[in-house]
Specification:
alpha+beta, Lipocalin, eight-stranded antiparallel barrel, two-stranded antiparallel ribbon
């Protein structure tokens, strides 16, 4: 059979028909191939989704396990904390038995109540002298010349027959094993309405002001557990406690109160006391 040239092919209707069929066949093959491609791609995506779902389920289970472990650890920690708290409470109860006077324990700390102040806020509203007598340990002070080098400082107050208050100040110079030093004096109440303003006489003609500016507000007849002594000019300041060491929580509250009153806490010197 003779091959048709391009010119004849373009002019021959039969040839055009054959050519059109060939093009249509190629188009069908192309569509089939494209359909097959999308089918395979869709199948792969379905497998991927299934695998992703499996991974999500696995992650979810692992998260639940970790949450359970965390919950168990938290429960263990709660148990440990309860045990520690019980031990601390037992120790505090034992210490209470031998304290100068029993005071209420609130959330593991001795309760701190501040006594009412006078209307002008200069001193406490009232001091029961019977409850104030006895030995006090100096916790902190605006250190004075006559106090320099003192450690283990205490002040002991008693009642004299003439109605004045005996004063005995003691300390050890340098350290707790240092040279013993003592000074005796007496005090007289100058405001018998509040009993909060006194004068201390180390010499007969000279009296130094002694103002009770903050005080343990616990009611009852037990001795006051803590006190803060100052003066009219804020030059003097003593924080006193019935025990050589003051609870940190209580001390913090007292210091915050003093800061509110305008006292410079940077000038405070904390006194070394026996444990």
């Amino acid at each position: 059979m003779k091959r048709f040239n391009d010119k004849n092919n373009r002019n021959n209707p039969f040839s055009n028909y054959i050519h059109a069929r060939a093009i249509a066949g190629n188009i069908r093959l192309g569509l089939l191939a494209l359909f097959a491609f999308f089918a395979v791609a869709t199948l792969s995506m379905g497998c991927g989704d299934a695998e992703g779902a499996d991974n999500d389920e696995s992650d979810s289970e692992q998260g639940q396990v970790m949450a359970a472990i965390d919950n168990r650890n938290e429960a263990d920690n709660d148990v440990d904390n309860d045990i520690d708290n019980d031990i601390d409470n037992e120790l505090e109860n034992d210490n209470d038995k031998y304290s100068f006077a029993h005071f209420e324990i609130l959330d593991g700390y001795p309760e701190t109540i501040f006594a009412d102040l006078t209307p002008d806020g200069s001193t406490v509203n009232y001091v029961d002298l019977e409850r104030y007598l006895g030995r006090w340990y100096e916790i902190a002070t605006y250190e004075q010349i006559f106090q320099r080098g003192c450690t283990g400082t205490t002040a002991t107050y008693g009642l004299n027959d003439n109605g004045t208050i005996s004063v005995k100040n003691e300390c050890f110079v340098g350290d707790l094993d240092g040279r013993y030093k003592v000074a005796n004096a007496y005090a007289r109440v100058v405001d018998d309405v509040t009993n909060a303003r006194l004068k201390v006489f180390f010499f007969p003609l000279f009296g130094a002001p002694y103002w009770v500016i903050e005080l343990d507000g616990q009611e009852g007849d037990q001795p006051y557990q803590w006190a803060v002594v100052g003066s009219p000019t804020d030059q003097y300041l003593w924080i006193l406690s019935r025990t050589p060491q003051m609870d940190d929580n209580r001390l913090t509250l007292i210091l915050e109160r003093l800061a509110e009153r305008g006292y410079n806490l940077d000038e405070l010197s904390f006194t070394l006391q026996p444990e």
